[in-house]
Model the fold of this input.
Amino acid sequence: DIQMTQSPSSLSAFVGDSISITCRASQDLHGGLTWYQQKPGKAPKVLIYTGFTLQSGVPSRFSGSGSGTDFTLTINSLHPEDSATYYCQQSYTTPFTFGGGTKVEI
Amino acid sequence: QLQLQESGSGLVKPSQTLSLSCLVSGDSIVNDAYSWSWIRQPPGGALEWIGYINHRGSAHYNPSLGSRVTMSLDSAKNQFSLTLRSVTAADSAVYYCAREVRLANYFDPWGQGILVAVSS
Done:
């Protein structure tokens, strides 16, 4: 199975800050990387797929980059509603696997 | 608007069988652009993909669950189901159903989730 390692596991930031979350895979994903946002008691929602494609309806302050084994989710100009846990998922091959999550406190 | 809704028993005894269904509304479950997945999340834990079933009823499971898992599709009811046998406390989790977009293998949307506890 492909192992997904996210860092940091948690972070605190202020409204208006920019933050980055990284996800490292144990092998080349050939662009198959998805980012999700999960709020307490809710199901995850997709933010970005194929490493950089913004899902329809997701604010443009969210962006994704990376290739190979290393990917980054960047949130610019943090809003209070961005408080959540963020997960990466390798969508390259089955079994699909997720990172351990990054809890973001605003 | 596409919606998914899980249903089933929220409490299962150890060694017994967990059975869940996911009703899909707003799209046909036999649309070949999608597969239909189950994903679980233990309390406070990370996400684990259980498997998917495609529009033809062909399923693919996470090897970590061995032969305990079976998925099925009911096109007449527009729903799909999960069966997990011989459960233990480690199977306690929130179980989500989700549509998998086959073009890029991501999950969208998800159901609201159903909490299943394994306890005697």
In short: Chain B touches chain A at residues 46-49, 60, 62-64, 96, 98, 101, 104-113 (CB under 8 Å). Chain B has no helices and eleven strands.
